[in-house]
Design a protein that fits this description.
By secondary structure, the protein is α+β, with helices and mostly antiparallel strands. The protein is built from six helices and ten strands, in the order E-E-E-E-H-E-E-H-E-H-E-H-H-E-E-H. The protein is elongated. The N and C termini lie far apart (53 Å).
């Protein structure tokens, strides 16, 4: 049997939701769609799955083609298949979300499709159901941040406590008590204090820290001590 009888064929696509942190706030990587329908309007990075590739392979290919990014943390989010989500043809899209440190990948980012980092506070109107995808990705990010050190993917290898606080405030969209947050972070015992300081933000400077990956693997539950409760 070459085909299933009496079945309708659908197109399959992938869309990539790329979150980045610039040291101050969380941002979303967007492009202007290059073809109709909705040409030139704000869009996530997306494309169709080819017959010879898996969903993961398609997501990585699309991301590299449209942004030049490769080797970044990325995981599957959800499938979106409303019959009328695409006005041209029935298309089911599988969404992925990725987390990167903007400064680490800024040289790798291609300007061929003119991708732009947009603050999550100023996201423009997006095509199709891309807004729904972003909303779901934000919720998943908050959930996973309470169980895994996923947010550290958004930070450089060395970071300060103020940077970590800014990241958590951006993700959870609320302010936290600085002293209480720092106390909980340090009491978790998952960070290694460095000898050098970041002195651009203030004269006194703030010490750099690193995530102790070995200790995290054996005491990952300690991260629950400083995850904000929402």
């Amino acid at each position: 049997m070459d085909r299933y009888l009496n079945q309708t064929r659908f197109l399959t696509a992938v869309d990539c939701i790329i979150f980045g942190f610039d040291g101050e706030e969380l941002k979303l990587l967007l492009i202007h769609r290059g073809f109709e329908p909705e040409k030139d309007k704000w869009s996530l990075m997306g494309g169709f799955v080819q017959s010879n590739e898996s969903l993961d392979e398609a997501a990585n290919r699309v991301l590299k083609q449209l942004t030049g990014l490769k080797g970044v943390y990325m995981e599957q989010l959800n499938a979106f298949g409303h019959p009328e989500r695409d006005a041209v043809e029935r298309t089911i899209s599988v969404a992925y979300f990725a987390l990167i440190d903007i400064h680490q990948y800024e040289k790798q980012l291609s300007d061929h499709y003119h991708p732009e980092w947009i603050s999550l506070k100023k996201i423009p109107k997006l095509i199709f159901d891309h807004k729904e995808m972003v909303t779901m990705a934000k919720a998943r990010l908050r959930y996973k941040a309470a169980l895994h050190p996923i947010l550290f993917e958004l930070l450089p290898e060395k970071f300060t406590l103020p940077q970590l606080l800014s990241l958590y405030e951006s993700v959870y969209e609320k302010q936290f008590d600085k002293r209480n947050f720092s106390r909980k972070v340090l009491s978790a015992g998952l960070l290694v204090k460095q000898k050098d300081k970041e002195k651009l933000s203030s004269k006194k400077g703030a010490f750099y820290f690193k995530l102790d990956k070995r200790k995290y693997k054996t005491n990952f539950h300690q991260i629950l001590n400083f995850i904000p409760i929402t």
